[in-house]
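Problem 12. The chain below contains 149 residues. Write out its predicted structure in token notation.
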Amino acid sequence: MLRVIWVAIISALCVMPTIAADKGLGLVVGHPTGLHYKQWKQGRNKAIQAGLGWETGKASSLAISADVIVHNYQHTSVKKGNLPIYYGAGLQLDLGAEMSLGVRFPVGLNYQFDKLPFDAFFELVPGMLFIPASEFTLTPSLGARYYFD
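Solution.
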């Protein structure tokens, strides 16, 4: 299990320097509750997001997730700011009494404030755990991030 943690940390450190600016850090409530990070790529269309939090479901565990997401600005409009729909794919690792590993497919709305370095998001994440056994998951999350360079 320790080997999996080290591989995840080293992989994240190798990827981060190649990502463009516009980094956001904030809090997320839901599945899991904790910190949430987002970094934009290719303008405001693609991003990488990651979460680190505490899962209090069946058994308490440390939850780590990472996703690549795409934003679509064409289907929603607001008077101020932006409200794109986003979707993507990623991995989730839960470290508790029993380790679990699976894939996740986040779908959500991301309100981007017009002249402030903040955003807020709501997402539903269907997924499939493969380790220790196959299990379908559907988890909601609500959060906000502050952006910096």
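Discussion. Residues 87 and 140 are 14 Å apart (CA to CA). Students who got a different answer should revisit the alignment rule from Section 12.3.
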